[in-house]
Please model this.
Amino acid sequence: MTRDLVIPAELLPADGRFGAGPSKVPAEALAALAASGPRLLGTSHRQEPVKALVGGVQEKLAQLYALPEGYRVVLGLGGASAFWDVATFSLVRERSAHGVFGEFGGKFAAASAAAPWLAEPFVGRGEPGTVAWPDHDERYDPDLVDVFAYPHNETSTGVMVPQVLRGPEHALTVVDGTSAAGGLWVDPADVDVYYFSPQKGLASDGGLWFALMSPAALARVEEIAASGRFIPAFLDLSVAVENSAKRQTLNTPAIATLFLVDAQLDRMLAQGGLAGMVSRTNRNAAAIYDWAEEREWATPFVANPALRSAVVATVDLATEGDLAVDAGRVSAVLRANGVVDVDPYRKLGRNQLRVACFPAVETDDLRALTRSVDWVVEQLRSGA
Model:
């Protein structure tokens, strides 16, 4: 039976975690967290030890991204899902425009469309595996747009925009960097808000959001806060900005998550900063895409190589004829052997493997994953 197949130990990766989020957390970071003892965990987040941790994360993110003068690192609770609602309350003045080419870009567009205080957003839509910019909506009028939003990387499909671009000069450019942060190149001067969660490229747990914010974005937050618009405190970006300046959050953060983010930022800065991490993810992704292109029964899902994500690689497996391979069975065997979370995004519904290539993932482990998949496919084809 499928679950009884035992992959030879010499083929297996040293670390079999390839999930696109939650992602691999390095064992040394977990050991350091345990060694921190009572210094942080179980202590007040309003006191200096935790505030120093928050401040350190802010400073290291500013260093990693070489933030321009006047930009600030703001953080809050709830992850990127909460930030979509935060943005509808505190960043969109009247009307937004969204690029939607996967699940996560669509969620921000849906939040804007559902907000009764906002006009119907413009939505440029693209099929999974492609990129669509906000101005691809045939109704698009740049004069009516005050937020221009799209994902840097679409986690659900393995597509990335080849270059982060600004929208209209008078609009805020708001970019979802959730699965891109730390692994894809971006110049913060090209965006007004670059937001992300830490459970992907930053090798931590979820539950927090971070936003790199320009002076224009900070001014917009102040403007809307002063307008009299009702905003729940938890979703009020002005409250998050104020608390972030004090190196804290509105209510209790997950301190362990902050600790793991801090540890990953230390590793990133020590290994070449953002440029070093981009080089690493490009190498990681190549290990998957090159392998897929060499197999008759595997194909990179994203047809255009320039749009293939360097942080989340998606590979279709053949569905017809003698070359057909059941990705679900492959994934089941891998999981039974400790190689986990290579399933496709559930709503995409493809016969596919989805593999995280984040900076914390070792290239040698990705190569071992491909050897393991080859072995599993061979066994399945032999009738095992």
Observations:
- The longest strand covers residues 72-77.
- The mean pLDDT is 96.
- The two ends are 7 Å apart (CA to CA).
